[in-house]
């Protein structure tokens, strides 16, 4: 089923957890048939990993991963 080109949506979250120290965040947007966004989280070793992604019908899912140095 074709997606309407006017379909747009954006959402995100960043729930800090003071008790456990868990740190994660994400944001995603849709414009027609393209979904793009990022998510990040704090790894057990203290480094933050961030993944930026984009997905569409022509090229599928593509992601780049960045990791802060400790």
Automatic annotation (TrEMBL):
Keyword check for Signal: yes
One GO MF term attached to the UniProt entry: structural constituent of cuticle
Region described as Disordered: spans on this chain: 1-28
Transmembrane residue ranges: none
Ranges of compositional bias, category Polar residues: 1-11
Keyword Protease set for record: no
GO CC, alphabetical: extracellular matrix; extracellular space
UniProt keyword terms in alphabetical order: Cuticle, Signal
InterPro entries named among the record's database cross-references: CHIT_BIND_RR_consensus (IPR031311), Insect_cuticle (IPR000618), Insect_Cuticle_Struc_Prot (IPR051217)
The protein's name in its UniProt record: Cuticle protein 19.8
The organism of origin for this protein: Eumeta variegata (Bagworm moth)
């Amino acid at each position: 089923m074709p997606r309407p080109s006017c379909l747009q949506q954006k959402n995100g979250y960043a729930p800090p957890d003071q008790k456990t120290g868990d740190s994660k965040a994400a944001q995603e947007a849709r414009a027609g048939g393209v979904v793009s966004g990022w998510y990040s989280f704090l790894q057990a070793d203290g480094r933050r990993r961030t993944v930026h992604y984009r997905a569409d019908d022509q090229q599928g899912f593509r992601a780049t991963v960045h990791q802060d140095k400790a």
